[in-house]
Design brief:
Blueprint: H1 3-27, H2 34-49
Length: about 55
């Protein structure tokens, strides 16, 4: 097994662990409503439209 395949295996294992963590969060009710995410995105878009000096 070369270092490239070892790295991929580590990345794949980390992805799997993060997926399981996310699923546990959903099961426990630790979620953010879609409308809240959209409002946050709108706010970020608004901020990015401001002149640099007003941030």
């Amino acid at each position: 097994m070369n270092s490239s395949s070892q790295s991929f295996s580590f990345a794949e294992a980390e992805h799997h662990r993060l997926t399981l963590d996310a699923l546990a969060d959903v099961k426990a009710g630790r979620v953010i409503q879609h409308q809240s995410v959209l409002a946050w995105v709108d706010y970020l878009i608004y901020l990015s439209s401001l002149p640099e000096f007003s941030r």
